[in-house]
């Protein structure tokens, strides 16, 4: 009878260790899954977020202005929140009009292209928030070279019409 007790003890210990291993694997799997599916702090999966101090967003009197770091076309954090009222206005039948500007530093042709890429980044953020492409107008200003400090010149303005 002693050997039968040893066999049963081994079986119980084996099942216990197997169960513990399954629980640990389950916990690790859940933790890994949460890390993978955790949403990005940026609203738009298409739009990148930068931590550069030169990239920022200003909302004033219904106009949303995105300021960009030099040579960059990535949106500052908080883009989704800043565009929330624009998204609501477009849902109510309005249109979002985007205008891109650049500073005077560097190659003028590259600056014009960079201003366009910045406007595309804002457009992509709007479409990621559910705004239909036909409700977004990309408007090239007569003069894309903005006045004022370089930091403020590198911008995209979003107006609702």
Spell out the key features of this protein.
alpha/beta; single chain; 60s Ribosomal Protein L30, Chain: A; two-stranded parallel sheet; 161 residues; 2 domains; 45% helix; 5-stranded mixed β-sheet
Explain how this protein is built.
- With 161 residues, the chain is of the alpha/beta class.
- It has two domains: 1-38; 49-160, 2-Layer Sandwich (60s Ribosomal Protein L30, Chain: A).
- It contains five helices and seven strands, in the order H-E-E-E-E-H-H-E-H-E-H-E.
- The strands form two sheets. It has a five-stranded mixed β-sheet. It has a two-stranded parallel ribbon with strand order 1-4.
- Helix 4 (108-128) links the parallel strand 5 (96-100) and strand 6.
- The radius of gyration is 27 Å and the shape is elongated.
- Residues 36-51 have low confidence and may be disordered.
Topology:
Layout: H1 2-37, E1 49-50, E2 56-60, E3 63-67, E4 75-76, H2 79-82, H3 84-91, E5 96-100, H4 108-128, E6 136-138, H5 150-153, E7 155-160
Parallel strand pairs: 1-4, 5-6
Antiparallel strand pairs: 2-3, 3-7, 5-7
Concise structural overview:
By secondary structure, the chain is an alpha/beta fold. The chain is built from 5 helices and 7 strands.
Overall radius of gyration: 27 Å
CATH architecture of the largest domain: 2-Layer Sandwich
The geometry reads as elongated
Q: Which fold name fills CATH's third level, the topology of the largest domain? A: 60s Ribosomal Protein L30, Chain: A
Q: Spans of 5+ residues with little confidence (pLDDT < 50)?
A: 36-51
Mean pLDDT, rounded to whole units?
Answer: 78
| Amount of helix | 40-55%
| Order of helix and strand elements from N to C terminus | HEEEEHHEHEHE
Largest sheet: 5 strands, mixed
The number of helical elements comes to 5
Return the domain count. 2
What structural category characterises the helix and strand content? alpha/beta
What's the CATH H-level superfamily name of the largest domain?
Answer: OmpA-like domain
> Cα distance, first to last residue?
89 Å
Give the DSSP E fraction (strand runs of 2 or more residues).
15-25%
The CATH C-level name of the largest domain is Alpha Beta
Strand order of the largest sheet: 2-3-7-5-6
Number of strands: 7
């Amino acid at each position: 009878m002693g050997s039968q007790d040893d066999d049963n003890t081994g079986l119980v210990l084996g099942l216990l260790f197997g169960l513990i291993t399954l629980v640990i694997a389950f916990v690790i799997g859940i933790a890994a899954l949460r890390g993978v599916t955790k949403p990005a702090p940026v609203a738009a999966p298409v739009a990148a977020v930068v931590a550069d101090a030169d990239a920022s967003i200003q909302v004033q009197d219904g106009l949303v202005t995105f300021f960009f770091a030099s040579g960059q076309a990535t949106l500052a954090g908080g883009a989704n929140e800043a565009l929330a009222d624009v998204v609501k206005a477009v849902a109510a039948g309005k249109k979002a009009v985007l205008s891109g500007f650049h500073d005077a530093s560097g190659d003028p042709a590259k600056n014009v292209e960079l201003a366009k890429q910045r406007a595309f980044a804002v457009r992509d953020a709007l479409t990621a928030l559910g705004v239909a492409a036909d409700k977004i107008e990309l408007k090239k200003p007569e003069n894309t070279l903005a006045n004022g400090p370089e930091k403020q010149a590198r911008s995209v303005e979003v107006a609702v019409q």
